[in-house]
């Protein structure tokens, strides 16, 4: 037991190094131009070590997507609560979402996934579908509020997408696509409040 633990830690460190190197290579060269040789060199491990952890570049990319997915899991989102003020509930959800969108590791992984998805529609569809599942908490809240008669819409899914767009237009796409700095806490709060107020002015 004592001898296996250090070995396991070394193996884990190598895996982390490989994933980190792959992210850097995918960002620098794109999915198509990135090779397992380049990843091994950047991670300072042998190519055989890379293949011991990941049988193919596709499997390595899938692991990165899984890491992005796992990074999204921040506990259960608060559910709709009948009788409580809508604005306070919505702000709680939006501020939670903004914290995720400004996690640097999440942004790096999103850049990798989106860049690779441009060259492979199949990868893009998988990524969008999984991200859509992650954003279900906001859609579920809108559906519940609409069912309770407090949000007036015949299409809760469309309304939820509008709300997502209000946030992502300031707090995701500029950072992912244009390299803008993540927003500070005050600016995140301002965006959450403005998005909530615009949404409720239209639908409440």
Describe this structure in words.
The chain is built from 11 helices and no strands. The N and C termini lie far apart (60 Å). It has helices at 4-33, 36-43, 47-53, 57-72, 86-101, 104-119, 121-134, 136-147, 156-171, 173-177, 185-203. 78% of the residues lie in helices and 0% in strands. It folds into 2 domains: 4-55, Orthogonal Bundle (Arc Repressor Mutant, subunit A); 69-203, Orthogonal Bundle (Tetracycline Repressor, domain 2), CATH 1.10.357.10. It is an all-alpha fold. Helix 6 (104-119) runs antiparallel to helix 7 (121-134). It comes from Paraburkholderia translucens. This is TetR/AcrR family transcriptional regulator. Pfam families: TetR_C_7, TetR_N. Residues 35-54 bind DNA. InterPro entries: DNA-bd_HTH_TetR-type_CS, Homeodomain-like_sf, HTH-type_TetR-like_transc_reg, HTH_TetR, Tet_transcr_reg_TetR-rel_C_sf, TetR_C_Proteobacteria.
Secondary structure layout plus pairing:
Layout: H1 4-33, H2 36-43, H3 47-53, H4 57-72, H5 86-101, H6 104-119, H7 121-134, H8 136-147, H9 156-171, H10 173-177, H11 185-203
Pfam family, one: TetR_C_7
InterPro entries: DNA-bd_HTH_TetR-type_CS, Homeodomain-like_sf, HTH-type_TetR-like_transc_reg, HTH_TetR, Tet_transcr_reg_TetR-rel_C_sf, TetR_C_Proteobacteria
DNA-binding region: 35-54
